[in-house]
Amino acid sequence: MHRALALAALPLLVLACAPATPQPVAPAAPAPAIAAAAPDAREQAALGEQLVAAFNDAWNRHDMDAFAALQAEDADFVNIFGMWWHGREEIRANHVGIHKTVFAKSRLASVRVETRFVAPDLAVVRWAWELTGVVTPDGQPVPDMQGILVHVARRAGDRLQIVTTQNTQATADAFRAVRAMDAPARPAQ
Q1: Phi and psi at residue 147, in whole multiples of 5°?
Q2: What is the pTM for the complete model shown?
Q3: Are 95 and 104 in contact (CB under 8 A)?
């Protein structure tokens, strides 16, 4: 009986031990092409300027819905005090209150804007700003402020949408140095 079982199993054993027949291999798919080339220097500058102008416009109208629309849904924002907000709604909500109080009459202006695409659809937009018209919570005027905002922004069609923001308040001396720089730098090619 064992001999009959062994003979019956022999074809299976031969199949199990036989080298596998190589399967035909499909040719490797070509590496995905980059969706688009990085914009040229003029387009980089224009996209950065457009984003900054929209940021200033929303701020100066105190329209925090328009301000929030500039942010990606999963954006984050670090303000000059180190408060770190996550998501478009949290960024909007934290700006609404201060635009009803201390920033209610504030005016934001850009002084210098530099835009550099680090990938075809990803840019770093850095800009120097001046803020006037700020008051303390009890209504006392605050000296004009200045600083530098840095956005990482993703290209969304013909515009940029903010993915992350870091805001830094500058000392007067540092800001004078930024203002004294030569003509705005050209974006990387």
Answers
A1: -175, -165
A2: 0.74
A3: no
pLDDT digits (tens, 9 = 90+) for 97-140: 999 999 999 999 999 999 999 999 999 999 999 999 999 999 99
- Token pair in block for residue 12: 């299976």
Q: What is the CA radius of gyration of the chain?
A: 29
**Gap between the Cα atoms of 66 and 55, Å rounded:** 8
Residue with tokens 């001046």: 130
Q: How many CB atoms lie within 10 A of CB 148?
A: 19
Q: Which of 72, 103, 106, 107 is nearest to 89 (CA)?
A: 72
In 3-state terms, what secondary structure has residue 134? coil
CA gap 13, 48 in Å, rounded: 69
60-69 contacts: CB < 8 A, separation 24 or more?
60/106, 60/107, 60/108, 62/99, 62/100, 62/103, 62/104, 64/92, 64/95, 64/96, 64/99, 65/92, 67/91, 67/92, 67/95, 68/92, 68/95
CA 133 to chain centre: 28
